[in-house]
C-alpha cells in the first residue's frame, strides 16, 4: 500500500522565513545535504510530454498528477536522483532512485535506460513515458534550500529561496547556466509529514497567519521561460 505524505506550501516573505528559521533551528536538526549555514542548492531537470500534460495539470490544479525530474545537489553530479512524484490533492508519493551520468544523458536524449518491470521503479515510469508520450526535458529549476527534520512523524520543513529557471536543458549539470529569476514568487515554505504534525512545530511556524498556496515551481518556471 502506498504511503502518501501531506505536503502543504506557503508563500512567505524573506523576513517571515528568517524568523521561522531562527525558531526552528533551536529544536530541529538540519538536513544532511547542507554544505553551508545557508543550506544547499537544488537543481532539477523537469520532463514533460509533447502535449505538456504535466504543466497543464499543475497549472489547472488537477487533483491527480505526476512530475518527472532528475535532481542533483550543490551542482555535483556525484549523486544523481531520478524521481517521479505523484500528487493526490495535498498528498504526495515520491519514487526515487540513483542513476549514473550515462543513464542521465540517455534520458535527456529521449532514450530508455535499464529498469525493472515495476510501477514503483521511476526508471520504468520514465521509459514508459518516453515510449508512449515522447517524454523529454523542458526546463531547469534551481533554488537554495534550508531544510529541517523531525524524525517522529517523518516531518520535513523546507525554505526555498532565489527560485530561478533556465531553458538550457542540454546543459543540465554544468555550472555556467543562465537563469531567469522568478523574483515576485521566489520564497516558499514547504511542510511535509506522514499523518500528524506535532503541535509544538505548528506553534513555532505560526502557520495560522499564513495561507496555503497552490505553488508549483515547475509550473511557474515553465511560464517564466515561455515569456
Care to describe what's here?
By secondary structure, this protein is α+β, with helices and mostly antiparallel strands. Helices cover 24% and strands 38% of the residues. The protein is built from six helices and ten strands. Strands 1-6-5-4-3-7-8-10 form an eight-stranded antiparallel barrel, surrounded by five helices. Helix 2 (53-59) packs across helix 6 (217-226). The chain is globular, with a radius of gyration of 17 Å.
Helices and strands in order:
Blueprint: E1 5-11, H1 14-24, E2 29-30, E3 40-48, H2 53-59, E4 64-73, E5 76-88, E6 91-99, H3 101-108, H4 122-133, E7 136-150, E8 155-166, E9 180-181, E10 187-193, H5 199-205, H6 217-226
Antiparallel strand pairs: 1-6, 1-10, 2-7, 3-4, 3-7, 4-5, 5-6, 7-8, 8-9, 8-10
Helix pairs in contact: 2-6
H/E element order = EHEEHEEEHHEEEEHH
Instruction: Tell me the β content.
Output: 35-45%
Q: Can you list the strand order of the major beta sheet? A: 1-6-5-4-3-7-8-10
What is the residue-averaged pLDDT?
A: 92
Q: What summary fits the major beta sheet? A: 8 strands, antiparallel, barrel
- The end-to-end span amounts to 42 Å
For the CA atoms, what is the radius of gyration? 17 Å
Total DSSP helices = 6
Number of strands: 10
Helicity level: 10-25%
Overall shape: globular
Low-confidence stretches: none
Secondary-structure content class: alpha+beta
Name the features:
globular; alpha+beta; 24% helix; 227 residues; eight-stranded antiparallel beta barrel; single chain
